[in-house]
Amino acid sequence: MPVKGVIFDMDGVLVDSEKFILAAAMAFLKEQGLNPQKKDFLPFVGTGEDRFIGGPAEKYGLKLDLKKAKARTYELYGRLVRGRLKPLPGVRKFIKLCKSKGLKIAVASSADEIKVLTNLLEIKLPPETFNTVINGLQVKNKKPSPEIFLKAAKEMNLSPFDCLVVEDAVSGVTAAKAAGAKCLALTTTFPQKKLKGADWFAKNLAKAPEEVLNW
Questions:
Q1: Is 9 a catalytic site residue?
Q2: Which of 193, 175, 173, 194 has the alpha carbon at shortest distance from 184?
Q3: Active site includes 65?
């Protein structure tokens, strides 16, 4: 059966905002008296801000009120990204191609709603561009659990087996395959050797193989 729907992760797929959320998270932890390193955050890429902020904090023995920690981090993030975010290469063209083929499209991001909306509005792809937008607050289990992709497929009235997931993170590829979807892995964040299990690989959506929408 041909693909009927495409589910996009957000960070590293539609937009490169990782450096901004990293800068915001590091700035927040420095406000708490810590001296975090970039490498402290790498294991938590793609798992949502609870772990992206909380994981490094735990490493340094800092107990956080996650609600307050995220609110402050998003405040810093919002200032950093204003007027500075652009869609990654090929994003608009790929979305246009999906729509021309009559495919349903979704965003499924582990990030909280405030970050998802901030990013989509900054890159001028508002939520109504998509059939559904799922954020990390709408699921109990974050990636590598398949829950978010199963929910996105359900919201589009599709089977996950009929969906293509576009991901850039190790946890995301694992989640996509656990959901039963095909997966295009973009090497925007991790090298191809780290993204084992994906069906296709590309540098970005501008370089996506033609067959990803024709299987």
A1: yes
A2: 173
A3: no
